[in-house]
């Protein structure tokens, strides 16, 4: 541990209570030990660490949790870490580390959480990730990973959280992800992918949070999406989705946030969305929706934000929707009526909070 202290510039740490002192290392700040005085946890988060990750930490054979986050670590992940027999949690997020995930990750037989987000990791995602069958949490967002997501990722049947947002991942969404029935969060925003959402994703019954905004994915929404009965958040914005919005979306009654902004959806607004009782934010601006606003939306009395500007809607805002402003609705935005095109609404005082000028 003394070697790691000096390699990581221990004298400039913000907190180093006990380190290199006369007491047992189990009393050093950031260390925890088991009953046999063997170090099983090391956490030095937000502690002004500098330097390359010390591979010597892999000698702590009893270590189950290693967390060195929000600091200034550089260099690559030592391959030796994944041979640590008891390692369950590896958190290295918010550093300046580089390189890729080593193929030796396959040897991490007990690893449950791998958090590498917000670094400078790059390269391709190794297929060996699919061999870490104990993983429940994988976050590699905000890095520079490229090429396609390996289909082997679908072998992670215990995975609950998969976050790969803000990379340069390309290719199609692996249909094999539909096998990951423990998945609760799937975040893939802001990548360079293409194709559509595989219908198999409808089998993700435990999914609560599905975000693929700006991922490059588009096309028609599969009707199987409506089978995600536990879905609470859906973000498809800034994508190439098109076609009419299916009426089956009204079955997703646990949804409280849905963003369809900046897509190419068309046709009428489904009245069935009025069954989404828990909805607090409904964002549908900058599409090509036509027709009128269904009066059934007046049932959404939990609604706080409702944005519809940038569409081709006409008619009058239903009184039932206007009345939501007396409930929890704080932002309701539509297009102002354009007399030339006929598109938009005469925004009555006390109804919409803002109408966007379309003249």
UniProtKB/TrEMBL annotation:
<dbReference type="Pfam" id="PF00560">
    <property type="entry name" value="LRR_1"/>
</dbReference>
<dbReference type="InterPro" id="IPR001611">
    <property type="entry name" value="Leu-rich_rpt"/>
</dbReference>
<keyword id="KW-0433">Leucine-rich repeat</keyword>
<keyword id="KW-0472">Membrane</keyword>
<dbReference type="InterPro" id="IPR032675">
    <property type="entry name" value="LRR_dom_sf"/>
</dbReference>
<keyword id="KW-1003">Cell membrane</keyword>
<dbReference type="GO" id="GO:0005886">
    <property type="term" value="C:plasma membrane"/>
</dbReference>
<dbReference type="InterPro" id="IPR052595">
    <property type="entry name" value="LRRC69/RLP"/>
</dbReference>
<protein>
    <submittedName>
        <fullName>L domain-like protein</fullName>
    </submittedName>
</protein>
<keyword id="KW-0677">Repeat</keyword>
